[in-house]
Amino acid sequence: MAAEGLDGRAHAILLERTRQLATRSMAAEAVTIALLLLEVDGESCALRVDAVAEVAAMPLPARLPRAGPALLGLVETRGVLCRVYDLAELFGRRAGSARRSGGHLVVLRQGGGRVGLRVDRAAGIVEAPAADLLPAEDGLPGTLGRITRSGIDLLDPETILGRVDGTANHVA
């Protein structure tokens, strides 16, 4: 009889342990990432919040001579000058109309410096399940993945900064 009680107790312990492991597994699948939703030339996209230093109303940038169409100019943000680029121009979504006013300034963290992006609208922050990200197929160039349920492209800051480095026209 004592052996039966021990087997029953061992079985109950194993069942409880299995339930705990299953609960942990479900919690791990529910990992989310915080995303800043953006609107750019009629398209929705997002950046990971941890890549963004700040968001503000788009100020009037100081124009630079011989700047390419994507480089809007310089703005001061928190005592630091940063170059501001039109995100739609960087991705070839808008030609020649990047100089329009309004919108939002999204400042990316870039090592010790900062780079600003002009977007039509910073719509807010959402939490998205990491499991919902799939490889981008028909999205904007330079995306990391597509948020499957909403169809929003997740932009890669490194790709954006690579395009910025390729389009920065410095005064000779």
SSE inventory with pairings:
Layout: H1 2-29, E1 32-40, E2 43-48, E3 52-57, E4 71-77, E5 80-86, H2 87-90, E6 104-110, E7 113-119, E8 121-129, E9 133-134, E10 143-147, E11 152-155, H3 157-167
Parallel strand pairs: 2-11, 5-7
Antiparallel strand pairs: 1-2, 1-8, 3-6, 4-5, 6-7, 9-10, 10-11
Any descriptors?
single chain; about 170 residues; alpha+beta; six-stranded mixed beta sheet; five-stranded mixed beta sheet; 3 helices; elongated; disordered C terminus
Give the N-terminus to C-terminus distance in angstroms: 93 Å
User: How many β-strands, per DSSP?
Assistant: 11
User: Count of DSSP helices?
Assistant: 3
Query: Largest sheet, if any?
Result: 6 strands, mixed
H/E series, N to C?
Answer: HEEEEEHEEEEEEH
Oligomerization status of the protein chains: single chain
Range of helix content: 25-40%
Low-pLDDT parts are: 168-172
Q: Calculate the mean pLDDT score and round it.
A: 79
What structural class results from the helix and strand content? alpha+beta
Share of β-strand residues: 35-45%
Computed Rg: 24 Å
Order of neighbouring strands in the sheet with most strands: 8-1-2-11-10-9
Q: Judging from the principal axes of the Cα atoms, what is the shape?
A: elongated
